[in-house]
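[Automated response] Your request has been received and processed.

Submitted sequence:
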Amino acid sequence: YPNPSSGILYIQNPNNTTEYSKLRIINSLGQNVLEQAYSKTIDVSGLPAGVYTLIVLSKDQESYCSKFIKE
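Generated structure:
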C-alpha cells in the first residue's frame, strides 16, 4: 500500500510465519525492473508511471504476487 503509489510502497506480510528473502518488480512488458533483498518498504519513485507486478519470494521458494500502479 498505497496503491496507486508515487513514492514509497509498504509491504504487509500476509502470513506472519513466512520468512521472505527477495522482492522483484516486473513491468507490463515482463521485464525485471527491480530486484532486492526483502524489505517492508520499497522506493518506487524512480520507476516510470505504469502498472507493475510485485513478487515477494520466501526462503522456501514460495511466492506472493500483487499488482500496483505507479503514478
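Summary generated for your ticket: The radius of gyration is 12 Å. The mean pLDDT is 91.
If you did not submit this request, please reply to this message.
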